[in-house]
Specification:
The chain is α+β, with helices and mostly antiparallel strands and 154 residues long. It has three helices and eight strands; from the N terminus they run αββαβαβββββ. It is globular. 19% of the residues are buried.
């Protein structure tokens, strides 16, 4: 399971937003008896280690009080980085014209991994240009997606 339950996600997002940050998204990775809850935050001026620490302290308190996650887990708060994860349809809309990597839950034409340019978003479909061919992926079929960083600079 890579996504946190909707109610917990909404609660965490609310706390992050009240602190003045953008809640980019979250992931939950269960690793046997020990799990990782990773929260991505951002703002217009970028994210510092101090920002991550402040948000981590607040979220830890909320998680402790609500006792939402069973067992042992590690909370990680991070900036989205240059390979920004895409969690919402709105994230794809912001990346039109940029290259992304996408992994689907099930194969589409015997393929689960795609790398291409985001052409447009049509309702719940993400249209990518992959190897000079347009691919239409349903948002609900996408397991994971990240921006491909352009480190050449512009």
């Amino acid at each position: 399971m890579t996504k946190v339950a909707t109610t917990l996600r909404d609660r965490l997002a609310s706390v992050v937003q009240m602190m003045g940050y953008e809640f980019v998204g979250c992931e939950y990775h269960s690793q046997g008896r020990y799990s990782i809850l990773r929260i991505y935050i951002d703002n217009a001026t970028g994210i510092t280690l101090a920002d991550c620490s402040r948000v981590s302290e607040q979220l830890s308190a909320v998680l402790d009080v609500e006792d939402s996650i069973r067992g042992q887990y590690s909370l990680e708060v991070s900036s989205p980085g240059v390979d920004r994860p895409l969690f919402e349809i709105a994230h794809y809309q912001k990346q039109i014209g940029n290259k992304v990597k996408v992994r689907t839950y099930t194969p589409i034409q015997n393929q689960r991994n795609f790398a291409g340019i985001v052409l447009r978003v049509e309702g719940n479909d993400i249209c990518l240009l992959v190897d000079a061919e347009e691919k239409k992926l349903s948002f609900s079929d996408i397991e994971k997606a990240n921006l491909v960083a352009d480190i050449r600079g512009k």
